[in-house]
Specification:
Strand content: 15-25%
Distance between the termini: 30 Å
Helix content: 25-40%
Low-confidence stretches: 14-42
CATH architecture: 3-Layer(aba) Sandwich
Strand order of the largest sheet: 1-2-7-6-5-8-9-11-10
CATH superfamily: Vaccinia Virus protein VP39
Structural class: alpha/beta
Mean pLDDT: 86
CATH topology: Rossmann fold
């Protein structure tokens, strides 16, 4: 693995695949219960297009990232309409978990919709997309300069390989990015590593409290969200079709709470945020 600044001034982290990186895990016999109640790998995701609650296959993830970059011009507009304007309140709720003077990392910062309102804190924005980071940097640094604050730091990397030191951050935030992690458990392990003892992870993502709530969520994603995205983008093949797929195979509160506890987090909590279209997880690294 290689780390260093790229031509855009971002810290970059390139993971070199080993010759064994594509090896498949041997499948368990049918009807045999896994010894792990929260499995974090799956032998074959071909029937779901590369998705399951634990993560996303490389090929599907690469296409997903391409689709996410295509959302940049209308990202905020579509999100505002599809959440009926509640997206602003969701971001405000998550930001309330941090205080001035803290060192904060946002994993999956996108175009900076959340980071732009982080005030009085040492901020680092991480995203695997150089295009997202360019938009984020221009937007966030402009506002921080107007407030008389220092520029944020920007890191081009995946959540599963964060090129930052252990025990660095007081808070780590993930705003609608956790759902897109390639390997959710590995990403959580990396976040756990870079958090200071006593630090807190806060995640806000699409709501799926349980299978029944998830059923309503799928209907919402398949109808209203698609309608909004098509009207705003004027494209029948708009990127939000891919985001709906990630929700379909996204896990429930209990699933991810279990994974977080396996990683070592304590005080793991999950709840729906009004009006129920998003979930907030929070968990602490032990002192």
């Amino acid at each position: 693995m290689v780390s260093g600044p790229n031509q855009n001034g971002f810290i970059t982290h390139v993971v070199r695949k080993s010759k064994h990186s594509d090896a498949r895990v041997k499948a368990s016999p049918p009807n045999r219960q896994s010894p792990n109640p929260c499995p974090t790998s799956m032998a074959d995701r071909s029937s779901t297009g590369g998705f399951d609650p634990s993560g996303i296959d490389e090929e599907a993830w690469t296409e997903l990232e391409r689709q996410l970059e295509a959302t940049i011009p209308v990202y905020d507009k579509v999100n505002k309409i599809m959440t009926l304007g509640f997206d602003k309140g969701m971001r405000k709720h998550v930001r309330s978990h941090a205080k001035p003077g803290m060192k904060v990392l946002e994993v999956g910062c996108g175009p900076g919709s959340f980071a732009v309102d982080i005030v009085g804190m040492d901020l680092t924005c991480l995203d695997p997309s150089a295009e997202m980071l360019k938009v984020c940097k221009k937007r966030v640094d402009k506002v921080r300069e107007e407030r008389g604050e220092s520029q944020a730091s920007y890191v081009e990397a995946i959540a599963e390989e964060i090129p930052l030191p252990d025990n660095t951050f007081d808070r780590v935030f993930c705003l609608f990015s956790f759902r897109d992690f390639k390997d959710k458990k590995k990403g959580l392990e990396e976040i756990f590593r870079v958090l200071k003892p006593g630090g807190q992870l806060v995640i806000c993502d699409a709501g799926k409290a349980n299978w029944l709530h998830g059923l309503f969520g799928r209907l919402y994603m398949a109808t209203f969200v698609q309608w909004v995205a098509r009207i705003v983008t004027k494209d029948p093949n708009h990127p939000w079709k891919w985001l709906a797929r990630t929700y379909t195979h996204y896990g429930t509160h209990s699933y991810y709470k279990g994974v977080m506890k396996e990683v070592g987090f304590q005080n793991v909590k999950a709840r729906l945020l009004f009006p129920g279209m998003s979930s907030r997880f929070k968990a602490n690294k032990p002192e």
